[in-house]
Specification:
Layout lengths: L12 H4 L9 E6 L9 H8 L7 H13 L6 H18 L6 E5 L6 H10 L4 E6 L6 H17 L7 E4 L7 H20 L7 E8 L3 H5 L13 H19 L7 E7 L14 H11 L4 E5 L8 H4 L1 H12 L3 E4 L7 H15 L33 H22 L1
Helix pairs in contact: 2-3, 4-13, 6-14, 7-9, 7-13, 10-12
Length: about 400
């Protein structure tokens, strides 16, 4: 089990700052995107890596993951199913907001969604993204993309887009993980695997260590903490295991591991890699089985299906270890309800927030220099001006509630 230094007190305004209730009139459901067929794979990867000068020969190495799955990423269909379920949940709550679907890297693009919502007469969109944690790539980059889309569409003065808070600590995101992990452990127990011989590996996307260190507001930076990105994952893992402890006094050891590393070999990224850990467990003869929990992901997209269901599973099999992979929260009704909660939080200042884990809450509005670093590209003027306005609103609300 990995422990790191903690940053700011969870009760501080850095964690609890709320935005002003806003009369949003549309939801922009934004995701990463994925190819729809074999001919889309390389163009999609060019979009993902644009500006980095990576030749197609290198992109083909990653393209093989998509091609092995028929060239079509499951992420689009998964997002469409989530949107359909969310629309039903919003209707049940009598929240009359249309949901528009846009992606950062493939059709339907965010720009298309913004043009559509504008054409339909909407002016204040709330951005709901398929990423639960704080970091540049999982939070700030979405905000930057919203700002660039407003400039690209020449709608920066007419349309506003605010992003919901990161939601790794909403019970609707974590409770389905608890249940799925419990079932996986129970199935191993039925097959005769003792808890002390099972290793639980919570897996998330590796990022450059510089990006991790810069995650979260500037005032939260603590040497060696791994930033909010690592802290939030560890808090989520602890909470999941604590819930299991209520029913199972004897639990296996666990640790946070990483997957899907990319980039130059000389650039430090978060470690250890899930495959390396599985191999080491076998070499040390400390486990007979592994349960991999994709705690850092929302749906079973390619990085889960390929990196875990294919590569990690093969590594376990090669070393004679039983293998289980826990499902992501995805279309689970509790997670869909959590997404509706995130929307309702921003519509109604009195709507109660559901927050678990010892990390504390997460703010509606990013703090000063939040999730920046040398890996980050400059922010746009549309983003900066919108962020300044929203931060001023939040500070006013915080001042009002604390007086």
């Amino acid at each position: 089990m990995m422990q790191r230094p903690r940053a700011v007190d969870p009760a501080s305004p850095t964690h609890t700052r709320r935005g002003e209730a806003t009369p949003f009139d549309a939801i922009l459901f934004s995701s990463f995107g994925g190819p729809d067929g074999q001919e889309d794979v390389i163009p999609f990867l060019r979009n993902v890596t644009r500006g980095r000068g990576i030749p197609d020969e290198r992109l083909e190495e990653v393209a093989g993951h998509y091609r092995a799955l028929g060239g079509r990423s499951p992420i689009t269909a998964q997002n469409e199913a989530m949107i359909a379920a969310l629309e039903q949940e919003l209707a049940r709550r009598e929240i009359d907001l249309p949901v528009y679907f846009g992606n950062r890297n493939w059709a339907p693009y965010n720009a298309d969604a913004v043009r559509a919502l504008h054409a339909d007469g909407h002016r204040h969109a709330l951005g709901l993204v398929t990423s639960a944690y704080s970091s540049y790539s999982s939070c700030r980059q979405y905000r930057e993309d919203f700002g660039m889309v407003l400039e690209e569409t020449a709608l920066a003065g007419e349309v506003s887009i605010d992003k919901v808070r990161v939601y790794f600590n909403h019970p609707g995101f974590l409770e389905p993980v608890v249940d799925s992990l419990g079932r996986a452990l129970a199935s191993l127990a039925v097959q005769g695997h003792d808890a002390e011989r099972v290793a639980v590996l919570f897996s998330t996307h590796s990022v450059p260590t510089a990006m991790a260190a810069a995650s979260g507001p500037e005032e939260t930076r603590v040497e060696g903490s791994g930033g909010w990105y690592v802290e939030q994952h560890l808090a989520a893992c602890r909470w999941v295991m604590d819930q299991l402890h209520d029913d199972s006094p004897e639990l296996p050891d666990w640790q946070l591991v990483y997957q899907s590393r990319s980039g130059a070999p000389h650039t430090p990224w978060l470690e250890p890699d899930v495959n390396d850990v599985i191999a080491q467990l076998a070499a040390d003869q400390t486990a007979d089985a592994v349960v991999v929990v994709p705690i850092g992901f929302v749906t079973d997209h390619v990085e889960v299906v390929w990196d875990l269901d294919t590569e990690a599973k093969e590594t376990a099999q090669e070393h004679g270890l039983a293998f289980r992979r826990v499902a992501t929260s995805g279309e689970n009704p509790r997670f869909i309800a959590a997404l509706a909660d995130l929307i309702q939080e921003r519509l109604d200042a009195d709507f109660p927030r559901r927050v678990v884990t010892d990390f504390g809450g997460t703010p509606d509005v990013c703090g000063v220099n939040c999730c920046v670093g040398r890996m980050c590209r400059p922010t746009t003027s549309a983003l900066d001006s919108a962020q300044d306005v929203e931060r001023a609103r939040a500070e006013a609300v915080t001042a009002g509630t604390s007086s």
